[in-house]
Each structure stands twice: as structure tokens, then as C-alpha cells.
Amino acid sequence: MFRSVRAIALCALAAVAVPAAAQVTTAPLQQVDDAPALSSQAGRQTGVVTYDREDGQQVIIRSYEPRSARSEAYRVDFAALDVDGDGFVSRAEAKAHPTLDAEFNAIDSNRDGRLSREELAGWLR
């Protein structure tokens, strides 16, 4: 019986010792003075948020305005789309332009069911 108790105690000590020997130490990251390069898709910075972690480290999150779209999908001939000449592009008139049709609700900021030149100018910036 003494041998079995001693064997169990040795196994228990071995189980505790192995994880302690397997621990890994880490070193803090090197501080970098240069700001990260801007992505080719980023424009001017629009916001920054800094979070302080419990370990004293900081997490910084920046947001950037996207660069203007230079695609044919975002070129609009207002006069050609305004078929009835009322000075607005209706939902039906926007169907002639697939991208404008798909983004109509996002562009129609006053939710009147038609797009003014001002609303389109904000979309095309």
C-alpha cells in the first residue's frame, strides 16, 4: 500500500512539474517611431480612438476616408438621367444606371424617393 501511495504522489508531482517547465516567456514588441504607411486605398484620416489596456499597453485604431472612386460605375450624367427634366432623378430614372440604382436608398439622404444634384454630389465626392 505504501508503494501505491508513493507512486500516486510521484505521478502528481510529475504532472505539476511538466507544465511549469513548458511555460513560455514573451518579450514586449519594439516601439516604432514611424507611423505605418497609408494603404493605397486610404485617404485622409477621419478619426482615431485609443484604448488603454489593463497591462499598460495602448491600442490605437484609426479610420481613413476612402479615396474617391475612379470607376465608370460612379460617373453620372445628371441631365441624361433626368429624363422628365424636373431637376431630380427618380427611382425609375435611376434604373438606367446600375450602380446608382443599387445605391439609391443610401444616396437619397432626405428619403423623398428622388435624388437632387446635391445628393448626387455627396455620393460622387
TrEMBL record:
Domain EF-hand per the UniProt entry, residue ranges: 95-125
InterPro entries: EF-hand-dom_pair, EF_Hand_1_Ca_BS, EF_hand_dom
Signal peptide: 1-22
Keyword Transport among UniProt keywords: no
Entry keyword annotation includes Zinc-finger: no
MF (Gene Ontology): calcium ion binding
Keywords on record: Signal
Pfam family, one: EF-hand_5
Record protein name field: EF-hand domain-containing protein
